[in-house]
Amino acid sequence: MVNEKLYEKLAKLAVRKGVNVQKGQLLVVKAAADIAWFVRIVVKEAYEAGAEEVSVEWRDNEITRLGYAHRSEASLSLVPDWVRDREAYRQEKHACFLNIISEPPGGLKGIDEAKINAYQRAYHEKMGDLLNYTMNNLGQWCVVGLPSIEWARAVFPGLSDEEAFEKLADVIFRVSRVEEDNDPIAEWKAHDNALAMYCQRLNEHQFKELHFSNSLGTDLTVGLVENHIWVGGGCTTPQGVYFDPNIPTEECFCMPHRDKVNGKVVASRPLSYNGKVIEDFWFRFENGVVVEHGAGKEAQSLDALLAFDEGSRRLGEVALVPYESPVSLSGVLFFNTLYDENAACHLALGRCYPENLEGGVDMDKAQVLAHGGNDSMQHEDFMFGTRDMKVDGVKADGTIIPIFRNGGFVIGGEQENG
Amino acid sequence: MVNEKLYEKLAKLAVRKGVNVQKGQLLVVKAAADIAWFVRIVVKEAYEAGAEEVSVEWRDNEITRLGYAHRSEASLSLVPDWVRDREAYRQEKHACFLNIISEPPGGLKGIDEAKINAYQRAYHEKMGDLLNYTMNNLGQWCVVGLPSIEWARAVFPGLSDEEAFEKLADVIFRVSRVEEDNDPIAEWKAHDNALAMYCQRLNEHQFKELHFSNSLGTDLTVGLVENHIWVGGGCTTPQGVYFDPNIPTEECFCMPHRDKVNGKVVASRPLSYNGKVIEDFWFRFENGVVVEHGAGKEAQSLDALLAFDEGSRRLGEVALVPYESPVSLSGVLFFNTLYDENAACHLALGRCYPENLEGGVDMDKAQVLAHGGNDSMQHEDFMFGTRDMKVDGVKADGTIIPIFRNGGFVIGGEQENG
């Protein structure tokens, strides 16, 4: 362990600011079995914060992989009722969910896409409306990362295990704003406020569409739904509990109109999808739908993602991230969306977030669709931001307002320090 | 890892002989999160043996302890329905269960007994008849042990971590009959046959009662139920699958009559109960019930065990184990019943095994009770065998047949080598 104090600060941040567990609440922690040492710190912190019960749902990459390798599509498609019942029970108790990720990318490399899709489809069908709980922020949830040697090897393949781990740990603490002599909770409060300020300005403009362009070949117009809401930093549950769903987060994100995306977008970073790492890929949209695409590596995975369902060929999220964000400045490619999405502007194929639409959280799927939101069993972020990204906002009357120049906000408001 | 090959042999033994997973079967593995490396070997072996699905139920001693320490009795008494539903689902699918133990003793030292009992009671009530599945051998199950540093520290407190672990690993492999140059599955087949032979002789005699005496102060008469069945080694499910519930096992065990136990028994080894280690304890029985008892250490835990319910003050099992068994010869006190019960003759307070009664598996609780079997939410083994243990069998006509002299079988049949 590099520095025990930093891990304790990270656990405290995740518990008290990230998922913000309340007195008497049930907390569900999801984590890999081999980081039990850290989960113990988290569980202790959660009880001390007043949790009534902390339940841990363990997973193991290698065992998941063995299951996919040996089980049939039919077997993988049978998701038992108790899995749904467990989730329903937790939601009825207003549980909150903390997911700690520490796994290396590419864990399902070589596994038949059809099997992965079969399980995903069965799982989504079995869970049904229960997926709305986190999607609509009906309860607190948080995803936070922990360095591991396996992950470090993938990120710094040229280094020794020890050096790679040190470097990954160092950068994860840095971008999580956890330092030896700071108060991470105070840092995150200030950062949440800065993101809220950018969102407020964007919301006031109510842009009809955004236009993205850069030297990588992106030339894309993303129409936004009417009465959209830009969201960034933390969220608030219907019970009034403020929480940070992602640590770190650097984005302001919004809801694209499912029929109003046109042009070409070129990804600027690889995408880790279903355990594969897709590289050098691009899409061309017409009226919201991907009509052409290509990839340099793992093209079949990209095909599978697009073919998953009708909604997986349309956008569900557009997000603005300054190229000077801490994750971007680190220069590290984490092969994990939690971090990599905070290095650059990004889009997501698939399901939209109803919170990005006025009254969306209280609408049913059909109503969200009618407003231009997208639905899918997937929600896959991919990065396309670059140092020279230019973003313009186009208002209903045709006025053009510069939002990004040279990869950073120019829409006004004070720059955040830190 | 001391010797990778030995661990692979142990995993294979547990999967193919212990729980004997069948083609197309669901296997549930229960294990501590920090032995994920070994669980991966087990899961791989199980899929290669033809399992349709291997599901892992992880646990962590420290997190369990935190839960007991912080949760209220009321909170611990709420066992959700999904826990029952999960078990019911698995039993409907004819799942088999492999429990891998690696934890040190005393994990719940200092925890309020009332809390532990509250959870145990709630769990037993929620599970109800589902507990019969393994109790009545309706499906295969197996408990096997794996050495861990934490456990080794408790067993060999004077040694360095490395030395202690080496010693514990060495003895666990030895008593599990796993050696570099042997075939553990063949060893266990031969051993199962030897135990079956002793059981057959005991069954032919249909003793009315057993009389135990030794120099430690034990002078105890244990009446047996009529039409009892001595069981040892492996068992067979109603579907005809042979399995070994315990690796290792050295015992031939039977069903005491719940009202016909009289005299004093002095324990010869400590008992690890609910995470406490009870030492130097004894009981005096009258007509089946403990009427007097004492303990040198953790006496409160012993009180709690006896007070748990009406059946926890009566015997549910009597077992004969030669003092020259491999576990006994090792001279090691494991602080774990899986091993320690195989070092010496033992008794269990609490629930009986219906398989020890002709037709018992098909009886309901009331019928088993009517035949003299015992019921309880507990089943706690404790050791009382010694090097000078003498056991006589008394037949209905008063004939006395010597069963044990000087701690070993004298009832006839060939001695087992190995």
**Mean pLDDT across all amino acids of chain A:** 94
* Overall geometric form of chain A: globular
Radius of gyration of chain A: 20 Å
Q: What ranges of chain A have pLDDT less than 50 throughout 5 or more consecutive residues? A: 414-418
Strand content of chain A: 25-35%
Q: Largest interface here, residues on each chain?
A: A-B, 32 and 31 residues
Oligomer: homodimer
Residues in helix, % of chain A: 25-40%
In brief, what are we looking at here?
The structure is a homodimer of 418-residue chains. By secondary structure, chain A is an alpha+beta fold.
Structure description:
The structure is a homodimer of 418-residue chains. Chain A has 418 residues and is of the alpha+beta class. In chain A, 34% of the residues lie in helices and 26% in strands. Chain A contains 14 helices and 21 strands. In chain A, the strands form four sheets. In chain A, strands 5, 6, 12, 13, 14, 15, 19, 20 and 21 form a nine-stranded antiparallel beta sheet that branches. In chain A, β8 (235-236) and β9 (242-243) form a beta hairpin. In chain A, α1 (4-18) crosses α2 (36-48) and α8 (149-155) packs across α9. The longest helix of chain A has 22 residues, at 184-205. Chain A is globular, with a radius of gyration of 20 Å. The model of chain A is unreliable at 414-418 (pLDDT under 50). The interface between A and B is medium-sized, with 32 and 31 residues.
